[in-house]
Amino acid sequence: MDQILLDQEHDPTDSTLQQMEFYKASEIEEVTNVLTTMAKEKSRVSDALHGERNSAYFHTTIKMRQARAQITEIKNREGTFLTQQDHIKGFIVEEYQEKYKH
Questions:
Q1: Are residues 38 and 2 part of one domain?
Q2: Residue 44: what are its φ and ψ, rounded to 5°?
Q3: Do 8 and 30 have their domain in common?
Q4: Does one domain contain both 21 and 55?
Q5: Which domain holds residue 97?
Q6: pLDDT tens for each residue of 24-59
Q7: Considering Cα of 71, then 77, then 83, then 87, what sign does the dihedral take?
């Protein structure tokens, strides 16, 4: 490829050199794709044999997401803040039952 590029510097209008460059670039891209695929497959096999390397990271991110999604306090109709989970759950259930009575 280097030689083709050097030859093109001397004669940039040579269509044969342009075609050769195109074919070489295509070959390089194909080899790169094969190597990338092989690396991904090797990584999957390694992870399957040795366990997922990122499991602690993903576990932590899920725990953080759950913590953010949790209702830690809510204000009831009397203006009192409820902070205990069983009180919060009870309040929410009561409110929905009241709202959707038939």
A1: yes
A2: -65, -45
A3: yes
A4: yes
A5: 71-102
A6: 888 888 989 888 888 888 777 666 566 666 677 778
A7: negative
